[in-house]
């Protein structure tokens, strides 16, 4: 019997030619923006459909019907496995679908792009690029010293695919890498790995602090007032996790009181960020519009990950990026 794979109809157009459905013994079940399944030429309500595998493609978000897709999935009679384009699973939908017994695979496709975003922001702060451009315009021949990454210490909070990609690149530059994760384990490219209980001890060592952790009750407002009492006054904080990992009032106070050098923020509690928010005009804040994932290779990696997992699923092999349900339901 063929295994059924539900996929947004426009996403199917992107990958159909790369999969031999007959060889893998799978049956495509497209779904629409209206939350209907297309089965054997018929439009069926989710309550009347059981699927073995559902792919939440990034096109669902790009084409702006993610809430409807979430609701469709929750209303579907049964889904054995759901693969999502999201890396973080803090949206309440994932807890609800996991409670129904659905296994979830999240995404590692964003890791490369987000790591490169982090390094672009660090280089911009470490190298006087704007000054160099001005000196060129002024035809001024003058030396412009800069900070070397090889002399820096990185504290990476969260060590999933994103944190790992960042640590790998930092180590390639000769930097010292400290990692905080839920279960401290030694890892390649890491000089010291610790649990959150050691966080306050590690903060004074860090020149660059990267928030790359999942959002849950343990990490909500992790970067609070106590956090900033331990940071170097010239440290650089970069948040590519979720906005709620930061106590925003505490961050602004830390910047104003020179307890922290600069903050690079790509994620916020409210998105889009309201025009009246103080972050827009703060001289020690660089902000971007939740864009760190938007590298030129991310879409291809999303599709590659889905295709690789579909082949594993069809062959009965272990799936990549399978999430521990306890991490969602505890």
Give a summary of the structure in a few sentences.
The chain has two domains: 3-109 and 297-323, NAD(P)-binding Rossmann-like Domain (Rossmann fold, 3-Layer(aba) Sandwich), CATH 3.40.50; 111-287, Rossmann fold.
Describe the structure.
This protein has two domains: 3-109 and 297-323, NAD(P)-binding Rossmann-like Domain (Rossmann fold), CATH 3.40.50; 111-287, Rossmann fold, CATH 3.40.50. The protein has 330 residues and is of the alpha/beta class. It has 13 helices and 14 strands. The strands form three sheets. The protein has a seven-stranded parallel sheet, with helices on one face. A five-stranded parallel sheet has the order 2-1-5-6-7, with helices on both faces. The two termini are 36 Å apart.
List the helices and strands and how they pair.
Layout: E1 3-8, H1 9-15, H2 21-24, E2 26-31, E3 37-39, E4 42-44, E5 50-56, H3 58-62, H4 66-75, E6 78-84, H5 92-99, E7 103-105, H6 111-126, H7 129-137, E8 153-157, H8 161-172, E9 176-180, E10 192-194, H9 199-202, E11 208-211, H10 225-228, E12 236-239, H11 248-256, E13 262-265, E14 285-287, H12 298-315, H13 326-329
Parallel strand pairs: 1-2, 1-5, 5-6, 6-7, 8-9, 8-11, 9-10, 11-12, 12-13, 13-14
Antiparallel strand pairs: 3-4
Helix pairs in contact: 6-8
């Amino acid at each position: 019997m063929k295994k059924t794979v539900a996929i947004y109809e426009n996403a199917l157009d992107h990958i159909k030619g790369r999969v031999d459905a007959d060889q893998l013994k799978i049956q495509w079940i497209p779904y629409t923006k209206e939350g209907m399944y297309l089965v054997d030429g018929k439009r069926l309500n989710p309550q009347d459909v059981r699927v073995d595998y559902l792919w939440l493609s990034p096109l669902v978000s790009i084409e702006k019907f993610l809430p409807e897709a979430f609701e469709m999935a929750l209303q579907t009679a049964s889904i054995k496995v759901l693969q999502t384009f999201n890396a973080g699973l803090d949206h309440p939908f994932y807890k609800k679908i996991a409670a129904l017994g659905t296994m979830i695979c999240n995404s590692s496709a964003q890791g490369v792009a987000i790591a490169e975003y982090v390094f672009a922001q660090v280089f911009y702060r470490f190298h006087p690029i704007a000054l160099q451009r001005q000196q060129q315009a002024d035809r001024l021949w003058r030396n412009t010293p800069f900070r070397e990454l090889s002399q820096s210490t990185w504290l990476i909070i969260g060590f999933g695919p994103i944190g790992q990609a960042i640590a790998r690149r930092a180590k390639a530059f000769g930097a010292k890498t400290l990692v905080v994760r839920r279960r401290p384990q030694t890892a390649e490219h890491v000089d010291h790995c610790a649990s959150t209980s050691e966080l306050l001890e590690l903060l004074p060592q860090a020149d660059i602090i990267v928030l790359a952790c999942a959002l849950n009750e343990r990490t909500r407002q992790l970067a609070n007032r106590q956090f900033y009492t331990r940071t170097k006054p010239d440290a650089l904080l970069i948040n590519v996790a979720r906005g709620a990992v930061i106590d925003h009032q505490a961050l602004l106070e830390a910047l104003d009181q020179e307890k922290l050098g600069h903050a690079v923020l790509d994620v916020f509690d409210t998105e889009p960020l309201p025009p009246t928010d103080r972050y827009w005009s703060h001289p020690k804040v660089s902000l971007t519009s939740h864009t760190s994932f938007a590298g030129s290779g991310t879409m291809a990696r999303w599709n590659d990950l889905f295709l690789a997992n579909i082949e594993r699923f069809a062959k009965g092999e272990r799936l990549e990026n399978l999430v521990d349900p306890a991490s969602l339901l505890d």
